[in-house]
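User: Batch of two.

Assistant: Item 1 of 2:
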Amino acid sequence: AVSTAVEALRKAMIAADKSALDRLSLPELGYGHSSGRLEDKAEFIDALVSGKSDFSAIELADQTVNVVDNIALVRHVFHGTRAKQGDKVKLSILTVWLERQGQWKLLARQAAKL
């Protein structure tokens, strides 16, 4: 179920699907970029929907999922292609997911450059 939520988030980020991004993340979301910039939920969603952050492709590799009670720690390597710039991004990602009412929701994300 956690991996399904991660995959849904990946697809929602590429599609800049505002309702899916909203549904998959918690109001308390802290979204950390490899540059050190931190966004809240509204800023994270707005960056994707407005095109400020625009991925034409995202692939996730070497994913591990560790679940403890209703918390999941997901690590993977993020390979992204930015649509406007055409450049490639390779990051190490840690996401923290919380299960609420049977649904896994993104609580935190931190990226580091590789």
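Item 2 of 2:
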Amino acid sequence: MKRRILLGVGALVVLALLAIALYLGVLVRSGRPQRAGAATLPGLQARVSVRYDRWGTPALDAESGTDLAAALGWVHANDRMFQMELGRRAVA
């Protein structure tokens, strides 16, 4: 009887650890920054380009300072998405 209980508890522990690992995997993937493709940012007056070097440092090109500031804010939020998502989930 003790053996069955220990096996059952062990199985529950393994399942709980697998569920936690799966949850953390989804959490990490959901917060990855966008590094390729195009994004639409409302309020821009002209096209802004963002390029990342091999270390992940962004380089922005814009026609106006206002567009540059808006794009810089988007890049900052995009890079911090994991931290913001983790904070949101912690508060919830």
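The chain has three helices and two strands.
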